[in-house]
Amino acid sequence: MRLKFILLFIFLITNSAYAGDDKKLYAIENRFLEEELVLASKTDTYFVFNLREKMASINSRGIHLREIKIQNSHYWGSPVSGNAYRLRKKSASIEPNRETITPGEKKDEFKLDALELTDMPSRYTLFFDSGPTILIRPQAKGITSAIYNFFYSSKTFLTRPIRILWSALRSEPYTAIDVVLDEDDARALYWSISEGSSAIVYAPPLVIFPAAVQ
Amino acid sequence: MSNKFKCVRIIIILSIIFLAIESAGYYLGTGAMPFDSKERADGKADKMSLDGLRAKNAQLKQRLERLTPNKIYIVVDTGRNRLYLRKGSSTISEAVISSGNGNILRDPSGNRQWVFDTPRGEYSVKTKQKAPAWSKPDWAFIEEAEEIPKDPRKRIEIGVLGAYALGFGNGYFIHGTLYTRMLGRNVTHGCIRVGDEDLKNIYTVAGLGTKIYIF
């Protein structure tokens, strides 16, 4: 009899905790859906970084124009809000250049002067207005990119805690999200996202998804 | 010897300080909840029951779904140079296209400048033409270092836009091409070029008002 009571007690405790977690999840998801509805009411393309489902998407009017699989992600710093963020700047060490046409110039038939997807960088940073900084990098393919990624991760793990501590001491929010994408997808995202674009970052609570967004 | 000992001591102390800073930063950086707890503690959401939240969730998703056109619509991926005819969430057909080359042209005699990008965003089919004629805009003459004609008839060029053209505003069209080997590349001045067969299919399926989403 006592055992039954104990089991019932455990069931009630765990069940209510589970329901509480569900409530949190729905409340957060509803907050994001409300925000997406506002963005979808406009004609502009917007972006969703769904860290929970490891999926980024290029959207318009609620339609997923293109879905991009997030290979890996790591979350650092202050929490994000449910608001949409405006892209202030996108920055890459080597940025693509547009060609300027010289009127009347004879064109080389074998040379194509055009800005194409392959000209886009696959390592870049997206700075959002009073929001997170998203660092995009490609999944390692081959020894060169693996070495580059190793040095990048080492540098990040050394410098970022200092940056976070500095922000905390100055009471400034700082959020950095490392996002690893397939190389072509990283280029495609750079191609599509432009300064002024809106984005939603869907980061679930740590309680429910431990290890944040590994 | 004592100097050497002092040096080692300083290195150890600095390492401990560095590690302490690193640990504190790491703890602060990874210990926080990714989602803002203040946002989460939304008063209304807290008062709502789980069923209420579920119902609201379904309702919000429905409202988002309702924004998707219930008729056929066109999606253009300018990066991959692909055009998709879609209905709901399913793709009916896919075509290889050519879109804007992203180059810049400056008018040597004035302050005008053109960037040859395919415009992005939501558009709709505004005009449909069979055997369209191209009325060459100013940039087409400037690019070739030719004089801009005063007679509008001298701007007309026949046959370069293919068999059909679907206009979606500001002089931009989905049209055919003579340069089919360039399909899949970014070579246009902003228009969307499609191969003959695909163009016929698009022209047949897309009516006036058909939504076009370009990214």
How is this structure best summarized?
The complex is a heterodimer of chains A (214) and B (215). Chain A is an alpha+beta fold.
SSE layout and pairing:
The complex is a heterodimer of chains A (about 210) and B (about 220).
Chain A: H1 2-40, E1 46-50, E2 55-60, E3 63-77, E4 85-91, E5 100-101, E6 124-128, E7 133-138, H2 142-169, E8 175-181, H3 183-192, E9 198-202
Parallel strand pairs in A: 1-9, 7-8
Antiparallel strand pairs in A: 1-2, 2-3, 3-8, 4-6, 4-9, 6-7
Chain B: H1 2-31, H2 37-40, H3 43-47, H4 50-66, E1 73-77, E2 82-87, E3 90-100, E4 104-106, E5 113-115, E6 121-124, E7 127-130, E8 133-135, H5 138-143, E9 156-158, E10 164-169, E11 172-175, E12 186-188, E13 192-194, H6 196-205, E14 211-214
Parallel strand pairs in B: 1-14, 3-12, 11-13
Antiparallel strand pairs in B: 1-2, 2-3, 3-13, 4-5, 6-14, 7-10, 8-9, 10-11
